[in-house]
């Protein structure tokens, strides 16, 4: 069994506390890596394959302002990220850290018990007020897990 990982600092930039207490970090890859702890696992929601990083990561093909290219794969990847967040430092990131990242974080909130119709508001309140940028991303969250 793996050693438990020190969790994210709840006050660190981009860290979202889910209702269960799990901490996940959202981030824009166009911004410098924040000081402090690094992820132990990351999901990169990008249209093109991300550069290599020194921690475990997964590329989720997700073009800017759009939806995941493979929704079944996205559901598996997000479920895995949610499960890992119980004892790992999980990061979700896209270029700017708002649209795709916010949508993925809202899906994790749904997995954690937030009603799908309330998940976008939850992420906007606790992560970034402009998270989940498009109407189709909001609809995706409402239908996630249905």
Features:
5 strands; alpha/beta; 32% helix; 146 residues
Structural class: alpha/beta
Largest sheet: 5 strands, mixed
Tell me the strand order in the biggest sheet.
1-2-5-3-4
Element-by-element helix/strand order: EEEEHEHHH
- The radius of gyration over CA amounts to 14 Å
Number of H- or I-type helical stretches: 4
Strand tally, please?
A: 5
Assembly of the depicted chains: single chain
> Kindly state the mean pLDDT as a whole number?
95
* End-to-end Cα distance: 33 Å
Helix content bin: 25-40%
Q: What best-fitting shape do the alpha-carbon axes yield?
A: globular
Strand content: 15-25%
Structure description:
- The chain has 146 residues and is of the alpha/beta class.
- It is globular, with a radius of gyration of 14 Å.
- It has 4 helices and 5 strands.
- The chain has a 5-stranded mixed beta sheet, with helices on one face.
- 32% of the residues lie in helices and 18% in strands.
Helix and strand topology:
Blueprint: E1 15-17, E2 23-28, E3 41-46, E4 56-61, H1 71-84, E5 90-94, H2 99-111, H3 116-126, H4 135-143
Parallel strand pairs: 2-5, 3-4, 3-5
Antiparallel strand pairs: 1-2
Question: Can you describe this structure in just a few lines?
Answer:
It is built from four helices and five strands; from the N terminus they run ββββαβααα. By secondary structure, the protein is an alpha/beta fold. It is globular and about 35 Å long.
């Amino acid at each position: 069994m793996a050693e438990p990982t020190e969790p994210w600092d709840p006050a660190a930039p981009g860290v979202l506390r889910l209702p269960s207490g799990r901490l996940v970090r959202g981030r824009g890859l166009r911004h410098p890596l924040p000081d402090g702890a690094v992820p132990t696992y990351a999901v990169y929601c990008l249209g093109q394959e991300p550069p290599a990083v020194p921690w475990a990561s997964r590329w989720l093909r997700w073009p800017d302002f759009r939806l995941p290219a493979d929704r079944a794969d996205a559901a598996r990847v997000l479920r895995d990220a949610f499960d890992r967040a119980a004892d790992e430092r999980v990061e979700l990131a896209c270029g700017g850290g708002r649209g795709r990242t916010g949508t993925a974080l809202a899906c994790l909130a749904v997995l954690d018990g937030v009603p799908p119709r309330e998940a976008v508001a939850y992420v906007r309140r606790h992560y970034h007020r402009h998270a989940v940028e498009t109407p189709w991303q909001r609809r995706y969250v409402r239908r996630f897990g249905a």
